[in-house]
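Figure 6 in text form: structure in, sequence out.
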């Protein structure tokens, strides 16, 4: 009976610890400005233990949104900041002064990948670059951090990311665009797994790319219009002798003088 008793104590202890974590996160969320990194560590603990499922939530984001009033995405990237920094061996006292905005950008980098250095023609561990970026971040602007992260991810030149915005009516979004996006996402399938192991959907940008690529691949969408530039249209000229006869084509008796000819076309020169 002793093993059963030990197991029961462990289960009870786990339940108590999870409830204590839940109460702590609820308290920390009341002052997010002061408790951001404490809450980030708590989010990571909840994510790794999957305790949110025991509380009746489908994901960490659902728990954060429904119980704490914090957006799904924010809970996820706060947990990721702590996880990535720990994997890189960077202590909280070293990364906390960097601030959430820059850390969010830096921790987009995957610790399990490498960066190909075109100068040395070698693959360098991404962990080393993450540590470097965190150390340099206090001296760099947010834009400089974003540019360096983009370079590390190979998103430069033709692969650079661009942002486009547009506005549509609510009816258009619900009845046309959202339905189309959902159909494209079903065809694309999963974009991988998030930190909690749940399937990720492709972002809107990938959906639009797939939709436009499909349209561009259909030649019928680019049928050339009939070239009518060679069709001559005769317009009666004032003062000309026009003889109209029923059942016969219109004829024009007109002698062209050299002085009446159209001037020779010249290329347009843009004004300075």
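Output sequence:
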């Amino acid at each position: 009976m002793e093993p059963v008793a030990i197991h029961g104590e462990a289960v009870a202890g786990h339940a108590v610890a999870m409830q204590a974590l839940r109460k702590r996160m609820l308290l920390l969320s009341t002052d997010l400005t002061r408790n951001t990194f404490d809450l980030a560590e708590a989010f990571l603990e909840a994510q790794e233990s999957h305790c949110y499922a025991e509380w009746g939530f489908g994901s960490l984001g659902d728990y954060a949104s429904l119980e704490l009033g914090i957006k799904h995405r924010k809970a996820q990237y706060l947990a990721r900041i702590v996880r990535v920094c720990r994997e890189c061996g960077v202590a909280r006292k070293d990364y906390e002064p960097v601030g959430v905005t820059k850390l969010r950008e830096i921790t987009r980098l995957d610790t399990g990948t490498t960066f190909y250095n075109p100068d040395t023609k070698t693959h360098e561990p991404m962990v080393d670059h993450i540590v470097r970026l965190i150390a340099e971040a206090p001296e760099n602007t947010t834009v400089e951090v974003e540019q360096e992260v983009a370079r590390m991810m190979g998103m430069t030149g033709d692969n650079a990311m661009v942002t486009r915005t547009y506005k549509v009516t609510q009816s258009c979004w619900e009845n046309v665009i959202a339905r189309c996006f959902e159909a494209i996402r079903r065809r694309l399938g999963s974009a991988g797994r998030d930190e909690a192991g749940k399937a990720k959907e492709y972002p809107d940008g990938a959906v639009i790319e797939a939709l436009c690529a499909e349209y561009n691949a259909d030649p019928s969408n680019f049928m050339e219009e009939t070239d009518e530039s060679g069709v001559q249209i005769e317009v009666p000229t004032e003062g000309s002798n026009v003889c109209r006869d029923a059942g016969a084509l219109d004829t024009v008796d007109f002698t062209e003088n050299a002085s009446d000819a159209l001037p020779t076309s010249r290329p347009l020169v843009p004004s300075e």
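Caption detail: The CA atoms of residues 170 and 176 lie 10 Å apart.
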